[in-house]
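Second attempt. The first submission of Pyruvate oxidase had a stray character pasted in from the spreadsheet, which I only caught after the job came back as garbage. Lesson logged: always re-copy from the clean sequence file. Corrected sequence (573 aa) follows.
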Amino acid sequence: MFEKRTGALLTQQLIDWGVDHVYGMPGDSINELIDDLRKRKDEIEFLQVRHEETGALSAAAYAKLTGKLGVTMGIAGPGAIHLLNGLYDAKADGAPVLAIVGQVHSEEIGTGAFQEINLERLFDDVSVFNQRAETQEQLPDLLDQAVKEAYANKGVSVLIVPDDLFAEKQSDKTRRTSGEFFKPEIFPGQENLNEARRLIEQAEKPLILAGQGTKSSANELIAFAETIKAPIIMSLLGKGIIPDNHPYCLGQHGQIGTKPAYHAMKETDLLILVGTQFPYRDFLPEQVKAVQIDREPAHLGKHYPITTGLAGDSRETLKALTDSITPVESRKYLSYYQEKMKDWRIAVQEEKRREEDPLHAPQVMYELEKHLKPGAVVSGDVGNVTVWLTRFLHLVNQKFLISGWLGTMGSGLPGAIAAQKAHPEKQVVGVSGDGGFSMVMHDFVTAVKYDLPIKMVVLNNSKIGMIKYEQEQMGHLNYATNLGEVDFAKFAEACGAEGYRIESYEELGTKMKQAFLSDKPVLIDVAIEDQAPLPGKIDYTSAVNYSKYIVKEFFESGTLDLPDLKKSIQRLI
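This time the job returned cleanly.
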């Protein structure tokens, strides 16, 4: 009977599952498996990152973007701990990820050996599957099950392996399970469909709130909205699924959203939730009938008290509803908010097209739009940059990546790396603030090493801008939000990439154009003026607290730091 190294068998299994690359960093408790991956590097690439957090964030981003399994690796002890942030991002946004984590040698487990930690306990909360192999014979079956659980539960599977087991030999016939995942087809019951149809036909002001669950059903979502004449609000994770300039689109909702979306939500008499678990209850209407479509039955009514739930795939469910509903010819509610949205877009365009210094983020978004190609992927970071991207960067035929539910700073660069790896033929743009980028900037070298021609835009205001504004909104004085000045363009050059520093409006167009003509990794460092990311609708409590901050700042320093009062007044009413 022919025997192979267990690591070689696992490598073949990963290839059989369609895995063509893995993110990680070599180390003593995974070096045996690393050697097996080396021997198959033409079929499955090991992307060496500079920090395991980047590897896990990249694996999560890859899974979000493609729906395929993202794979990351780390050693016992410190490497495993570094994986956690990226794995929690995958858990929060429902991305299938496999983490293969090394452990100290089998005979050392439980002895307090160097770098030994309780990995099962460490990964217990983040995972849908979390097992440590005790024998090499277990590993092929455990790997199959780990992949199936990640796909079935849209979450993180962790396979913990003492490094010595990878080197043990066993029969290549040891595998006893099937290496294939069979995706279930889910469709709502007819009674629930009939109830949903009745509610929709009775509504005078129906409103659709759609999210990432509509990624594969954009056409059906638009057809449904056109049939019932209902405006569409997209969640943050839903940005880019339908064009931002679509006549039925009211943009995003919540603190990052638009004023028309805010008021339309307050006025609706039927909320239709499609493929979203929108968590911000304060931004949803009170005591309104609601229909929810989600392929996960446990998600129905989880964050909002719905009238009826439709457990099913959004594409087939929307199609069934559209086919069964009598089309509406016109609706005043829709027409009214379409006009409001036109006014909002005009105001946004005016802000974006200002030809003045100092530079502000909306001006950068306007220039960036000129260079985005159809099919491009935009990987956004978390912070003020999230507001600038969602509100001011209009996507028409591009995909959008971000850390949604976890909202972790530092997600922009790993997302860009993963997107370029997933789609080497497409344009990939990452957009971060200086705070988020500096958390993971070491891995810009990874993009250079693997010749990934990402274009990384850093909005550099030398502050943790979102936290600064939050402190002010709470009525507090700013503390520990200044970061100091860094020339990231020089850093990019030191990494072996191209770097462009933009400090004025006059430089913006020319240098941005130069950067996007390059076929190399590029970092575009844009010095922007600090600007409060005002919500689409400002509530009175926030306004009062901001006034408290202004008074405190005046008495502390004798200076006033006022936001744009015209914009503030417009968004207060």
